[in-house]
Amino acid sequence: MKLASSRTIDPAAAGQHIQAWMADYLASSGLDGWVVGVSGGIDSAVTSTLAARTGRPTALLRMPIHQAADQDQRGADHIAWLQSKYANVSSLVVDLSPSFDSLAASLEGAAGAPFGGLSLANARARLRMTTLYAVAAERRALVAGTGNKVEDFGVGFYTKYGDGGVDLSPIADLLKGEVYAVGRALGVGTAILEAPPTDGLWGDDRTDEDQLGATYSELEWAMEQAEAGRTAGAFDADSRAREVMGIYLGHHKANRHKMDPVPVCALPPGLFMPR
Going from the N-terminus, what domains does the chain have, and what CATH number goes with each? Predict the structure, then answer.
């Protein structure tokens, strides 16, 4: 039994709707255009294409940090394709490898021990967020996020104040499979459509599936089940369905802190002194 969401959309119409929404949002903001980080993956490819199609100035950034050559090349090829189609698209390459190496060395020097793993993986995403906002400030632009629904609201598969730090999230109501469908409708290149999804934060060839323990199709199915109120116990023991539900719910619980608003400690009235 293949686990997959039961949702269906019209990908061409969905793309047109998001494009119009982005154009309206930008017009109401009073700013001039877009900044989008392009990684060579499907999410940034779709977001950058929709931004370009609004006709507003669109700055596309490649921000390699010891990036795998094939990932960076896919991003470069996608940007070149958009520039050939849309006169409003510009391109910047900001090599963040030296900044990342300097940060890692400073952390290790202060701590007296090597830093690594998730802390430095997340540091890559946060350096990129800082770069996107620096360019956006200079160009009076909005930073368009590239997260999809299952990543942003299901398993929390993004970096807090990294790729989660954006001004708006155009594709965050699309499941990953739907992002691919919209990408095909927009004419995104085959190399991106066929590449295994990866966040590219680890300096190796691990995929999103390696990290998450399930495919996006399975996680989208689990998200639908959870929204319907079902838990892992609703499925046969030792079945893949129960295993996937456990994986999804585990990620969702562990990453709630990313999805919920930042907690604020409210002071009770009794603490305020009369004037």
Answer: 11-208 (3.40.50.620), 213-261 (no CATH)
